[in-house]
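Issue 218. Parser rejects a valid record. Input:
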Amino acid sequence: MKLDDRLEDVVGDRTARALEKAFELRTLGDLLRHYPRRMVERGELTDLASLAVDEYVTVLARVQSALIKTPRSAGARGRAAQRLEVVVSDGRGRLQLVFFGARNTWRQKDLVPGGVGLFSGKVTLFNNQRQLAHPDYKLLPDEAMAEFEADLFAGALIPVYPATREMPTWKISGAVDLALEALDQVPDPVPEDVRRRHRLLDFDRAIRSMHRPDDLDAWRAARQRLTWDEALALQLALAQRRARAGANPAVPRPAKDGGLLEAFDARLPFALTAGQREVASVLTDELASDVPMQRLLQGEVGSGKTVVAVRAMLQVVDAGGQAALLAPTEVLAAQHARTIEHLLGPLGQAGRRGGADQATSVALLTGSLPAAARRAALLDAAGGAAGIVVGTHALIQEHVQFADLGLVVVDEQHRFGVEQRDALRGKADTPPHLLVMTATPIPRTVAITVFGDLETSTLSELPAGRSPIATFVVPEAERPEWRERAWRRVTEEVAAGHQAYVVCPRIGEGVAESDGEDEPEPDPSVRRPPLAVTDVLAVLIEGPLRGLRVAALHGRLSPEDKDRVMADFTAGRIDVLVATTVVEVGVDVPNATAMVVLDADRFGISQLHQLRGRVGRGSAPGICLLCTAAEADSPARRRLDAIAATTDGFELARLDLEQRREGDILGAAQSGRRSQLRLLSVLRDEALIGQARNEAQALVARDPDLSGYPRLAAEVAALVGQERAEYLEKA
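Output the parser choked on:
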């Protein structure tokens, strides 16, 4: 049988349906690419200390104890409230297994101390102890076990597969055995010269050794080969995309002597950093080319990305084109428009009193603009009067037109879908140049960057005058009195003439807190609703911030109210701004020096790094206090401790990537556990990815359609698929 044959023809209808439901596996190839997470040696138990909370795991461990317990509060429920508590161990750490209800107490006879087995379930945290509730399990065989089970675990290595409760690892292993037995010799898709150069196993041997290796070295060699296949297939897709892009040129936008850009540089009140000058030079050259620029500009919060982007936009305007800046929120879009107008001065006031002779104009287009202002912005964009158009998702609506769109700038690109960015780029008659900006790359951004889809520029140097930001975790569970100290610190900053932010996870109108039931099945994910702006505002005004000028800012306010609150805060008429993440990016108030983030464990690494970048933007140092009720040793708490330990956004991006993984870089998921790339890792395989990119470029240069390599072309198609190829084309 071949890799594309149906699973039901080999494993039977029932197992095939279960595999499709659990993992979307439909063919032998799908099943055999469902690789083991690891190989467990029969004498080596799982390191229980390495288990992550909320992960579905399969562990090999030894039963230490199995006791039936009845809660003291059971009362009349009596035996029905009993539970079986089993402790398994790796010889160092311990893991608790819990089975609720008297109908499960029979397992005490099954799970006897000294027995070794595989235990599968979701890791939860209860009373600060890792546990599996109602895990599935399979005890390792002894002489009394059935022949099939003995065969299943006969080898020195036991494969541990990604599994579910319905399809545990031992059932998957049995299906794999049937598939390998039925599989014919598999032809190798990778050219022999490439395999020889990189000392790769042949494919047939690799796919078999991935599941049933002779030893750990054979398994590692198989992983290396199959990881290489994923890297090569992806790099081939990207190389073909780049080759097609070269056949669809952009309009060159060269720099102009005596134009707006020169005048802008002359009126800047500060000198560009060395990094800004270097990036600006790269953008100048790429905009002057007929190859569409595809560049990611990543830089620390406050590193001056906006000024670099404005220079690029002015170069395009000087060349007769327009630039569009896409921002994720109305607050940020309005802030960008104000910042650009301020930087341009008379150069951005075409048609107005005081405007320079060669001025352009800046148009703002958002969904909630008044009708008259919206019509004016649409006319300026369509007629070309606005050289720079700033907006939110409203820019990508069908009726928005441009006279000659030459550059698309996307700020905080992770807040947009690829389809949204592509819709804006599609408003140009020829491919526009693209500049993507981000302060903290999220995992998918890092992944695509390393895989070679975007060229990258980095600003790591902060402009002169920026102050340091100190970040501290406020552990409310252990030190509840520290919360009051946080509010005292806010009042001290205000008393010193500064301002502060208080950030909450949501706006308001939450669900009432539940007391729960007696002796429920433990679920640590059930906790109180996140704190809300409307509730916190009232408490602060009446309590710890009484007497200060406190106001709220969130997404449900009208545009007029948002503008009024931001204007008052910028002007110093508000001491403390209680807000949601609408202040995450783009808000620039140099006098703000303190930030308190409530329920900080409910925010992501990227969000928290962006949020604290709102303080310390002037000459006075900033402080950011991350308040959390998370337990000291929990993953959420470790994440906050890591943020407090560094202000290096790129180090945090790497941490974010480690925790969230790359996500599905071939699809729309920003973070996900079901990547089409089963083995390839950005962090672990950077060198391998570079080698694969070189091979892919050489192969596509010789044979753009891979017509001479049909099996390799089929591998690319299987990995990417038509829909995902279109996605990459847009990316």
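Fixed in the parser; the record now loads. The two ends are 37 Å apart (CA to CA).
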